[in-house]
Amino acid sequence: MKKKWWKVLCIVLLIYSILGALLFDAPRLAILNETIRNLHFHVTMWFAMIILLVTSTIYAIKYLRSNRIDHDTLSAEFANAGVLFGILGIVTGAIWANFTWGEPWSGDAKQNSSAIALLIYLAYLVLRNSLEDQQQKARVSAIYNVFAFAALIPLLFILPRMTDSSLHPGNGGNPGFNAYDLDSRLRMVFYPAILGWTLLGVWLVSLRVRIKRIKMALED
Amino acid sequence: MQSIDSMREILTLVSKEFRSEWRQKYALNGMILYLASTIFVCYMSFSLKTGTIHALSWNALFWIIILFTAVNSVAKSFIQEADGRMLYYYSLVKPESIILSKIIYYSLLMMGLSLIGLFFYSMVMGNPVNDLAMFLLTIVLASFGLATALTMLSGIASKASNSSTLIAVLSFPVIIPMLLLIIRCSKNALDGIERSVYTDQLLTLIAINAIVVAVSYLLFPYLWRS
Fold it and tell me: With contacts defined as CB-CB under 8 Å, which chain A residues touch B215?
């Protein structure tokens, strides 16, 4: 039972945040109206994706230092989970954009950047599949993981802020959420939701890693 | 003393790269011909008379041509090295010297190729550049950045079996942020707007180049060992 508490926490947080996102009182803002509730899905899933991808890179560095195949498995699965949340984030963002910006894909700087970020991690998965030898696969893909992460930082956090045409809040003169509308009512759901999605990602990773460990043990 | 030694090592390796390139001139000639025929294909397919293309498309087309030339010429840096020769280097020099010498050599090669490319390109497509000095500076920075990123990525791709497809898949998404900045800088130079307006873009480009060099320098020893 000792190890189960965070899974219970994950379920409780997610039920709370989904109910809270749909039912709690939300601020009334022009254009956004009720779609502000998507904040608890779209933005929190992106946060979870970033956390999962950072963890993946940390395990890639750990693998390079230790050469333990277990670290590589973890790194790959965290990247997989990150890609899943990235796709969910893009889809929820497109739904939101359809209602507020008028079309699901408007070539916004951040939309393009996130699509490229997904391409980078899909390339990572292709690279993994095209290497045969296990040690070499682990080493080369860990190197690409770190290299790609270094390219991801300017892509997601610097370049979108340099353009003056982004529709996202916080870019090109649009005030960030913090400036006026992420009031305490939203925060009460927003932060638990980030934790909930991240825990769900970790849960997925732990299941897949256990399957992989069993497969490897069976092969040996 | 150690830094002087590694400097000498790097210089020897760079001169070795130059000499081996010079000995098999067909590769170099092939690259220049690739560049020239790509430019000519673009010229023919737009079927234009000199100077009728919009400045925005002129710029984008130029950088796409340079990108593909870079992928084709730098990709061979590790893929074409014979296995036995790599093992020989391994016993002689430090991995850091190898990656730095390759970065220096391919940056110089890319600068040469992009300048030749610019010459051909402006001959057939016209040259709307207003601030030539800044445009050349962008070319220098771009060649350096593209060469560095592609050298490291070709090292990664050379480990896999289908390396020629893989290099494109791996490199394009990683290079896009760099390419976006390059296109933005060179568009500003093209329009000849006040230089102080986009110096921060140039600085960001330099910073991204620095990140790529630093990461390659740190990661290459691990790649080398496998």
Answer: 146-147, 150
